[in-house]
Prior knowledge:
about 10% strand
Amino acid sequence: MARYTGAVCRLCRREGQKLFLKGDRCYTDKCAVDRRSFAPGQHGNARNRKLSEYGLQLREKQKARRYYGVLESQFSKYYEMAVSRKGVTGENLLSILESRLDNVIYRLGYAMSRPEARQLVQHGHFTVNGKKVNIPSYLVKPGEIISLKESSRSLDKLKAVLEANSSRVPPKWLDFDRNNLVARVVALPAREDIDLPIEEHLIVEYYSK
């Protein structure tokens, strides 16, 4: 399975904002964006760089892609899915991205970052409707039940992360029973449920050219 294996802090610096790809580190003074608030590379610190209309659209698409840890081909497929659905294409796209199982695991507080959530899913720690699912890109649907496997509930690492995230409130489209570690997908995520600073209309404009 293809995935980005480079330094994730470079991605944040390239987008000029925190994408929260390294968990706790993003909240400390070790964050690369705080220490070097310019893009990586030879010309990253160039002054007064003004992006073209296309450049703005490209950066917004790249930012969304990197938030969710999705490669280009997969992101393009999600866009095609969004176009085929009824409703606003940009909002449909974000709803699809939010519905990925690795993002759901992150939203429920099992992981400090989406990359960490992706790894937990790949290692088979979760079930959907009682069946093990180890595909991070699995798209959850309303009515499905997501549970932490019984054999994984005693893991100290997961216990510590859940405790650290105990104050995190899951989005309203997920009903999470924290005591039993079982969540139900109540509905597909709506735009108001997604708190990421993404201007999805720019992504639509990018693909509409």
